[in-house]
Design goal:
Blueprint lengths: L34 E6 L7 H14 L3 E4 L17 H11 L4 E4 L2 E2 L5 H15 L5 E4 L4 H7 L6 H21 L11 E4 L6 H8 L2 E4 L4 H17 L8 E10 L3 H11 L11 H8 L4 E3 L1 H12 L5 E5 L6 H15 L1
Parallel strand pairs: 1-2, 1-10, 2-3, 4-5, 5-6, 6-7, 7-8, 8-9, 8-10
Length: 334
């Protein structure tokens, strides 16, 4: 059967409904421990040299997962910043790493036809030996769609296309070869919407991500997600929970202020702030402090059911920050 491109709203036709979700088991919630991964905002200056070094470092240092955003241009109003293409970079990550899980966080369904995305993801997964987690989303940044002529639909249309696209990807894996190592591939999905997003996560995802360090938002979303799982007969514990947040780490106050000064030039909301202002501004929204302080906060949050902390690594040339995390935070958390 030929896979026909969808009309604007009608979705992706010709596919039967797949089984409702990937059943890759998650860590038992009762273990009260968590893992740490690294997340890159690839549109904010990621080039090939930086990507290769970060792939090698995160793999060697013992981080659980490496992920990068899938955007076309800086979201900080700095279009001069490098932004290497996501799936081309993930193919090289498969070669440059040996054990770490990796993937997009997340690929908007608006950017690629789902059959094409499915073939790309399966190819990279095979190359890596089955280490890809496929993050997918509805798409949200209207500006980059308009800037590059990518159709941007209504919210309802985008979520329709997301659901239909997931089904289309799974049918593509079933009907074509080679197949991904784990078929269907595990899906990562984010979001907090109670009426539509979280029920989709319950049906389709292996991992649910909350994209900011807001514990009330997490606890509220977790209740809805668990209820949605029970409604369809799914074990809520089969879905891994992750939180994404920035971090500022330092062995002492001087080192912390040095990194705060650097990050203020990258993150638009922090432009013009003094290092002390940055630390004060981010101390709740990010993980900020010495390794011991960061680990202590992570351990407390892990007791709520969080399995994985994805730390946004804004300072792409700061290998020492990654080493400090690996040597002093990872052992204290996991």
């Amino acid at each position: 059967m030929r896979l026909r491109a969808a009309a604007r709203i009608t979705g992706y036709v010709g596919f039967s409904r797949p089984r409702p979700y990937d059943q890759t088991p998650a860590r038992l919630q009762s273990e009260k421990m968590a893992k740490v991964g690294i997340m890159l905002e690839g549109q904010e200056g990621l080039n090939w040299e930086r990507w290769r070094r970060i792939c090698l470092d995160t793999d060697a240092l013992g981080f659980d997962s490496l992920r990068r955003s899938d955007h076309l241009v800086s979201l900080m109003g700095a279009p001069e910043r490098d932004c290497i293409e996501t799936w081309a970079s993930l193919a090289l990550a498969a070669e440059w790493t040996k054990r770490i899980q990796f993937g997009p966080m997340v690929s908007p369904m608006t950017f690629r036809h789902p059959a094409i995305l499915a073939k790309m993801a399966a190819s990279v997964d095979i190359l890596s030996g089955g280490r890809v987690i496929l993050g997918v989303g509805a798409g949200w940044n209207e500006n980059e769609h308009m800037m590059f002529g990518v159709p941007f639909f209504t919210e309802k249309e985008r979520f329709d296309r997301l659901e239909q696209g997931i089904h289309a990807m799974r049918e593509t894996w079933n009907r074509s070869n080679p197949k991904p190592v784990h078929n269907p591939m595990p899906l990562l999905m984010g979001g907090k919407g109670k009426k539509r997003t979280l029920p989709i996560v319950a049906r389709e995802a292996s991992e649910w991500n909350v994209s900011r360090l807001d514990l009330e938002l997490y606890k509220d979303g977790r209740q809805v997600l668990e209820a949605s799982c029970r409604e369809i007969g799914r074990d809520p514990g089969s879905i891994r929970h992750s939180i994404m947040a920035g971090f500022l780490i330092g062995r002492d106050r001087t080192e912390l202020r040095e990194r705060a000064a650097q990050v203020s030039s990258i993150v638009r909301d922090l432009n013009g702030m003094t290092p002390d202002d940055v630390i004060e501004n981010r101390k709740q929204a990010w993980f900020v402090g010495t390794p011991e302080e960061i680990a202590e906060r992570m351990r407390g949050i892990a007791t709520l059911g969080v399995d994985l902390f994805m730390l946004q690594h804004w300072l792409l040339d700061d290998a020492d920050a990654l080493k400090l995390l690996a040597e002093q935070v990872l052992p204290a958390v996991a």
